[in-house]
Here is the input.
Amino acid sequence: MEPRLPTRSGAPDDAAIKSITRPDGNLLVYYVLASLMTAFAFPIVILPLVFKYYTLRYTLDDEGVSASWGLFFRREVYLTYRRIQDIHVRRNIVERWLGIGTVDIQTASGSSTAEMKLEGMTDYEAVRDFLYRRMRGHAAIPGASAATALEAAGEAPAGEARVIALLGEIKDELEATREALAARER
Here is the structure.
């Protein structure tokens, strides 16, 4: 059993979030209950879900998040934090009763559904916040706000983030000078 993470009461521990590799055991209970709703199709529906539960693995590292599952047909999805566009937490009434949630991750792929789903998360809010911090830390480089985001996300030490911000300012001034010279020549 993985350690519970602080969510709203304290700062989330990134190391604890990165240590999440499996869904909570209540996800299997959820799969069984969902399969029972199909009545006569129960054996056909439950088998793939049981295989999915036992083979489902998550990896949250410094570059991105991945999920893999499947016994006969292995599926792996890897998203870098740069590609993440939006993150949603979804919990239906049964998931709320079981104390789990699903973190849906979307990219700019144009699909209306989530590119990746982290199912069976007990600390879904902490995972969502972790992903948001990482997503923002990788956006809009360079610039002062990016430097702050990088520092906050722990992506760059304070000195490196300031150098990136300074390089962003230099780039902006060079572009402004270039535009002024081009306007003068006209």
Summary: The two ends are 69 Å apart (CA to CA). Residues 44 and 128 are 33 Å apart (CA to CA). The longest strand covers residues 84-90. The helical segments are 14-18, 26-36, 42-55, 93-98, 124-137, 144-153, 158-185.
